[in-house]
Amino acid sequence: MSSESLEQRGVAPVPRGTGGGNRSRAGSGAGSGEGLLRIGFAVVLAAGLLSIPWLGPSYRFLSVAISSEIAAVALYGLSILFGQGGILSLAQAALMGVGSYTAAILAARAGLGFWAAMPFAMLTAALVAGVLGLPSLRVGGHQFIIITFAFGALFSIVLTNGGSFTGAASGLDVGSVGLLLGFKLDKLQNYYLVVTVALLLSILATQLISASGYGRILRAIRENEVLARAVGIRTGLHKLGAFMLSGVFAGIAGVLQAYFLGHISPTLYGGFPSVYLALMVMLGGPRLLYGPLVGAAIVSFLPEILNIDPVDARIAYGTGLIVVIMAMPGGVTGGIIALFRWLASRTQKRRPAGAPAVASSE
């Protein structure tokens, strides 16, 4: 394969006679070490989240944790759209509402339970998200953001005026989750485990998408859509695909939220709830794997920790977002990673003279 074709594929060829093979082995060792560190962190995180019910948390803590994790599932869909594709949408809560109402209506009209309704909710939310993404092929930036916000407000109005089909302003009741392998999932501790597994699968799916060729295409579109189109990438098709993926995550989160609350209403899925989801993902860091989880945890637990009322919490969120955007463009997670890298570089500079920088593998 020629060097020109390699460059077109985004791979820089190694010049001959420059010791590239040795650097490749060293880089491979460093990369494998970093990969093992990431895997270890993921295992510790999963074990920590799954072990929380056995640590004796209060009912309030588990409830807030469930709400936080449900929001994080929706945020991972938004991170694919915004973090990878560079398209900010203020309709993610409305897409959650599509999933919630699909599950509630199927339960009331067809008698379908939690597990049977889940794939229908995912599919419906994905299709609605695909339709919502069509304007992004024509407009972008703040114009498209306004369109998505308007969609969320319109969706809430439609639900309010939907009569008995949507429950109108009072909303719809949702039945119990039922049993799984003999365990009653309506019990708060058991439902927490269901939501946590959904969250962990969302993180894994996001990582796989980000590391795939499709993820690289989305990042190419984010960095320079005109150039991506010029080299033959079907940007419109891939953008619609990103919208549909975000809808799948939102549909899952909507079903989880509906069965957790037991009752849903239009006020949960208007334009402003989507603004809070966008706030969460920007606070945590949309381009980082654990950014959505961190953002959801901050927004959910901060009022509980500081014991502040909702109005003061909104002021604190707005102020915090301004500070994060100005001081930490990569979000809180990006700031923490940058701090650790700075500390690591300081530690390397203080290493005694003559100490090897990289341990030899030979």
Walk me through this protein's architecture.
The structure is a single chain. By secondary structure, the protein is mostly helical. The protein has a single domain (52-308), classed as ABC transporter involved in vitamin B12 uptake, BtuC (Orthogonal Bundle), CATH 1.10.3470. Helix content is 71%, strand content 2%. It has helices at 3-8, 20-51, 59-84, 92-109, 114-132, 141-160, 188-211, 213-223, 225-230, 235-261, 271-284, 291-306, 310-327, 331-349; strands at 172-173, 179-180, 183-184, 263-264. Helix 4 (92-109) packs across helix 5 and helix 5 (114-132) packs antiparallel against helix 10 (235-261). The two termini are 30 Å apart.
Keywords:
ABC transporter involved in vitamin B12 uptake, BtuC, single chain, disordered C terminus, 362 residues, two-stranded antiparallel ribbon, 4 strands, 14 helices
Tell me the overall shape.
globular
Return the domain count: 1
Mean pLDDT: 82
The spatial strand order of the largest sheet comes to: 1-4
For the biggest sheet, the summary is:
2 strands, antiparallel
Label the CATH architecture.
Orthogonal Bundle
Count of discrete alpha- or pi-helical segments spanning 4 or more residues: 14
By secondary-structure content and strand pairing, the structural class works out as mainly alpha
First CA to last CA: what distance? 30 Å
Give the SSE string.
HHHHHHEEEHHHHEHHHH
Strand tally is 4
Provide the low-confidence segments as ranges. 1-26, 357-362
Radius of gyration: 23 Å
CATH class: Mainly Alpha
Tell me the CATH topology.
ABC transporter involved in vitamin B12 uptake, BtuC
Range of strand content: under 5%
Amount of helix: over 70%
